[in-house]
Amino acid sequence: MIRCDSLNNSTHQGRDYEKKKKQERKKSILYLIENFLRFEGYIKTASTLIEEACLNTNNHVVCDNIDLDTILIEYENYYFLRYQKKPQISKSLDIAKSDTLNATKNKTKISKKSNTNQHSQDIQTIDTNFITVTPLNIFNESLEEEYCLPSIDLGYWKDEWRVYAEIISKEILVTNPNVKWSDIKGLSTPKKLLDEAIVLPTKYPDLFTGLCTPWAAMLLYGPPGTGKTLLAKAVATECKTTFFNITPSTLVAKWRGDSEKLIKVMFEMAEQMSPSTIFIDELDTIASKRIDHEASRRLTSEILIHMDGLLRSEKRIFLLATSNHPWELDPAIFRRLEKRIFVDLPDVKARKDMFIYYLSEMLQKHKYIKCDIDSDSLAQETNGYSGADIRLVCKETAMQAMRSIFQVLEKKADNKINFTITTKEVNNAISKTKPSTSEADNNKYKIWQSQYASC
């Protein structure tokens, strides 16, 4: 047993050593690049690199006998000796690929314009700092907005804490999910409360003072597939704050004490980058009252400490959590979640809107598939279905249409390929797709809602 423990410790130390060496290697590369830029006269670019990479040029300099030129020459000589040819470091692109690459790499914010009648390229020219940028929209889709973030100052974290800060920083959302409130069908109460908790305080900060301070913590609970995570994506899109997308696997660590340190760093980093939103999916998996393990109790205690800090903090930090089993949450954490909102199965109107969105609107641009359905009758037929279930029904319907098209293509017939989805095809897909939540399970949520909801 002692030998196994010793072997595990040695393996862990070896991994830590390799990880540390990798970080040192990356830092050395950055110092080499900064030195090269400054030597070549790119002073502003070098200054930007120092700021973004948190380089301490006052205490660290590149040695006299090393630079990028020397490294490249040595590599070329080695490559020639081994392969009898010079290495190719860069290559030219043809015009079409070059234009596409430039459009993809462009980070300029672009206002979104949709044109359903045009399937050709949608070109928009922007003049930024006297540089004209023309992005190409090859597939006639809206280009994503840049997701603006404050710079992450990893230099603030010293020694081992920097490792935890790097882990948490990887969970900060850098791509706009592009989910708006209008994209979510139904769920008017959760959308309204999330709007007043995060979005409105950003617009009207003077109104949210004293007793009217914004909600600090909120729980979304309900059956799977009802849109809890989709609401979180809408928050990330609409709120324009630093968004931490945390999963249980991020916070659960192998070694003793690491989970508590990760939680501490997460909340401190959120305070550094405020206004910020911390989204924890499936909170009950890491803060359950049924878990009696010592490590789980320590993790829960650390969360409680920082949740208390949220309620007293003057910084704008919002905690958004989801749970499929709210009755399993630790009572102490449950009490600190100020708003507890039931995300119910979609009602008749929401189901109708979903069928219109998934079938009528999404298939509008399809080349071979058309749609002619009675959305009212379909909404009545899908009572008890979640939003995810309805999406599966619509996907199964579309795939049935595709199978008919494949048969024509495989036979190489001269028939004109055209398929219209009707209510009959959708009802056939409904019969093959059963709801993922039973009525008994949904009643359990409603009973819990009547006792503990706060909306």
UniProtKB/TrEMBL annotation:
One Gene Ontology term of the molecular function aspect: ATP hydrolysis activity
A cellular component annotation (GO) from this entry: microtubule
Composition bias type Polar residues, residue spans: 1-12
Region Disordered: start-end pairs: 1-20
Primary location recorded for the protein, binned into one broad class: cytoplasm
Residue ranges of domain AAA+ ATPase in the record: 214-347
Keyword vocabulary terms for this entry: ATP-binding, Cytoplasm, Cytoskeleton, Isomerase, Microtubule, Nucleotide-binding
Compartments, record wording: Cytoplasm, Cytoskeleton, Spindle pole
One Pfam family matching this protein: AAA_lid_3
Family in the record: Belongs to the AAA ATPase family.
Name of the protein in question: AAA+ ATPase domain-containing protein
Organism: Aphis gossypii (Cotton aphid)
